[in-house]
Amino acid sequence: MEFRHLGNSGMQISEITYGNWLTHGSQVENDVATQCVRAALDAGITTFDTADVYANGRAEEVLGAALKGERRESLEVFTKVYWPVGPDPKGKNDTGLSRKHILEGINGSLRRLQMDYVDLYQAHRYDSFTPLEETMQAFADVVRAGKALYIGVSEWRAEQIRAAHGLAQQLGISLVSSQPQYSMLWRVIEGEVVPACEELGLGQIVWSPIAQGVLTGKYQPGQAPPAGSRATDEKGGANMIKRWMDDDVLTRVQGLAPIAGDLGLTMAQLAVAWVLQNRNVSAALVGASRPEQVAENVKAAGVTIPDDAMRRIDEVLGDVVTSDPSIVAKSVPAQRVI
To answer: Does Oxidoreductase count among this protein's keywords (predicted)?
Structure first.
């Protein structure tokens, strides 16, 4: 395993980071989820990312139980707050980045994780309905209470990150990371978010580097998705992956196989290694529904893709790549979820 600093902070994290979105507490049983976490630890992964909303809190519970007994100081554990969590019906303050929701959110996450603190506490989306000053003050109080060491954001626009960073500096806390979607097929952060983060000292913790599994090459143009794959999962996976299930996209992706083969990599390893070529990326988030997937993904650590291969990737994918930076704004909820 290779390690990188998270932004300009002094904390190092494993450049392959294990994330349990869409799997733990939802797609796979708890014992298999635990086996995946153990496989991650065995492969040298020390950094784990989750969120309170994943499987309505169950993902945090599964991760906490799986890490029980590990030396806490040797791990970096990340979680997030924004979306509603808890029993139905949800309350009017059970979403967003208000002081109330953030302070209640961190307490709930720590209880489910069975931990005293998290290394990174992230705003899962931007909250257009709460003053940013209130949000950042609440995060500062979480840090000062020793419940989180660093602060991050997820799917924020460049100007929102700049504003938050300025407030963080005034409050004396460390805003060190951004967690956006990023892959060969989804490059919307390259135009604005990455340059802003490079200037401010934030690192990217990128999710979906293999585009929901599409970049593994297992989805063939003109054929039904394999049984049991994410594209057939009606709990959420199928909805997330549908943007890529187009024959033109799938045909282009198959053209990546020779490039991966020339480098001695699987297509999934090529996809993970590709995002790690971006110097602003601190870590690539990978998930797994089977322990052996973890062992395969970590082989992307430390890989350098030659410039000519990077150019070939761009040529193969051509215009199926999404790169419009304005798309980032569409991830900000236009109204309260509740």
So the answer is: yes
SS3 state at 328: helix
Smallest CA-to-CA distance from 74 within 11, 142, 5 is with: 11
Catalytic-labelled residue, pool 18, 54, 126, 150: 54
Beta strands in 223-326 (DSSP E): 281-286
Indicate if the pLDDT at residue 226 is higher than 80.
no
Domains of the chain: 3-331 (3.20.20.100)
Could you give the CA distance from residue 8 to residue 24 in angstroms, rounded to a whole number? 31
CA angle 329, 84, 46 (to 5 degrees): 80
Higher local confidence (pLDDT), 243 or 115 = 115
DSSP helix/strand/coil, 36: helix
pLDDT tens, residue by residue, 46-98: 999 999 999 899 999 999 999 999 999 999 999 999 999 989 888 899 999 99
Three-class secondary structure of residue 303 per DSSP: coil
Question: Where does the pLDDT of residue 32 fall: very low under 50, low under 70, confident under 90, or very high at 90 and above?
Answer: confident
Q: What is the DSSP string of 124-170?
A: SS--TTS-HHHHHHHHHHHHHTTSEEEEEESS--HHHHHHHHHHHHH
54 catalytic? Reply is: yes
How many other C-beta atoms can be found within 10 angstroms of the C-beta atom of residue 14? 24
Q: Model confidence over 51-65: pLDDT tens digits?
A: 999 989 999 999 999
- Cα–Cα distance, 136 to 121 (Å, whole number): 12
Please say if the pLDDT value at position 24 is more than 60.
no
Specify the pLDDT at position 136: 98
Pairwise CA distance, residues 286 & 297, whole Å: 7
Q: What is the DSSP string of 170-221?
A: HHT--EEEE--B--SSB-TTTTTHHHHHHHHTPEEEEB-TTGGGGGGT-SPT
